[in-house]
Amino acid sequence: MRGRWWRLGEHRDQATACAALRSPPGNLPAYDPPQWAIQTSHLTYCHKPNTPPSLLDINLALPHGSRTILIGANGAGKSTLLQLLAGKRLVTTVGAEIEVKGQDVFRNTPAGVTFLGTEWAMNPVVRGDISVSAFLDSVGGYRHKERRDLLLDILDIDLDWRMHQISDGERRRVQLCFGLMVPWDVLLLDEVTVDLDVMVRDALLSFLKEDSERRQATILYATHIFDGLNSFPTHIVHMRFGAFVGEPIPWDPTNAIAATGGPSSLYSIALQWLKEDREKRRELETEGQRVSRGARREETIPTDSETFYRKYDYSH
Ligand SMILES: Nc1ncnc2c1ncn2[C@@H]1O[C@H](COP(=O)(O)OP(=O)(O)OP(=O)(O)O)[C@@H](O)[C@H]1O
User: Fold this and answer.
1) Stated pTM of the model
2) Which partner for 110 in 40, 86, 103, 234 could form a disulfide, CB atoms 3.0-4.6 Å apart?
3) SS3 for 191?
4) Does residue 58 line the site of ligand 1, with CB under 6 A?
């Protein structure tokens, strides 16, 4: 599995070779399905002009059917990455590319991409005096009745609940039903299981895993809750100061020590990585100067990114 995570340059060579092999006689154009579900190259992003980047030279290629957990401390850049992959923000950095299902997410948004984040539940619109049944119908639930009913069961939702009278966790369940009832090819999850009770969370994770395996659908999931997650991912990746610390690691819960050379549960790996992040930050801070976040990031980027970083004009 690890061999499938080519760097982008290698992937392009590989793709050219494959395309040549696939070309039919008579130079008829061959159908060339996108090889990667999610692909970024040299993705650097600043939330505001003249501020340090929140993402720094992210190069990522996630295969169809993969389920990747993003692991990183608060402020590592996980939400920013997911929002950009969902096309919610325009990236203007020179040389940065983001493709989901082979399409530019912002300019040519592909179908079948679902983003679920925490801000939804804060929206006053979903706190109105309306029944769950009417709410789900208003967003097209009747068109996906079979999946909707399955999700209502998994998430233990009562159609008679009223949206303005339910708890945060119940509202989260309605959001998940709303977001997941339309079949997705790429699912971007930003810590949406945080307020679910453990039984609903467990049922949801089983559903997502089974759905992803059956339809070769792809999941990228940022979370701080690692309990009960051990058998979920196919890959894990560590983010620190807006950059990736190494490439995504194939995850096999039965062989986790071999995969990481360290502790065996996802929880203990996350804990170890976050301790390393804190040590790294403290190291940088005690190097005789007070190090800004931007300076920290400049210290941590790989050598081949440095030229790009220094060339980057923050006014874009
Ligand atoms: N709207 C914004 N404007 C300016 N800076 C922002 C904005 N949103 C995030 N940032 C900055 O970008 C960096 C990455 O934030 P991000 O929310 O992506 O981190 P995260 O890994 O998702 O954190 P958490 O685990 O706390 O959700 C942080 O330094 C944060 O301060």
Assistant:
1) 0.81
2) 103
3) coil
4) no
- Ligand 1 contacts CB of residue 233 (under 6 A): no
Over 133-168, what HEC string results? Answer: HHHHHHCCHHHHHHHHHHHHHHCCCCCCCEHHHCCH
Ligand 1 centroid to Cα of residue 55, in Å, is 9
- The answer to whether residues 237 and 69 touch, using CB atoms and an 8 Å cutoff, is yes
Identify which of 7, 113, 115, 4 has the alpha carbon closest to the alpha carbon of residue 58: 7
Indicate the top mutation candidate among 50, 58, 71, 78 to test ligand 1's pocket, ranked by most ligand atoms within 8 A of CB: 78
The two tokens of residue 124 are 């006053």
Nearest C-alpha to atom 29 of ligand 1 is from which residue?
75
**Helix orientation angle between 145-154 and 168-180, rounded to the nearest 10 degrees:** 150
Ligand 1 pocket, residue 223 CB under 6 Å: no
Mutate to test the pocket of ligand 1, among 70, 71, 79, 83 (most ligand atoms within 8 A of CB): 79
Measure CA 284 to chain center.
28
> Which ipTM score applies to this complex?
0.98
How confident is the prediction along the chain (316 residues), in pLDDT tens digits per residue? Answer: 333 333 333 333 333 333 333 334 455 555 555 789 999 999 999 998 888 899 999 999 999 999 999 999 999 999 999 999 999 988 888 889 999 999 998 888 899 999 999 888 778 878 889 999 999 998 888 889 999 999 999 999 999 999 999 998 999 999 999 999 999 999 999 999 988 999 999 999 999 999 999 999 999 999 999 989 999 999 999 999 999 998 899 998 775 554 555 557 899 999 999 999 999 988 888 876 434 555 445 444 433 332 233 233 323 2
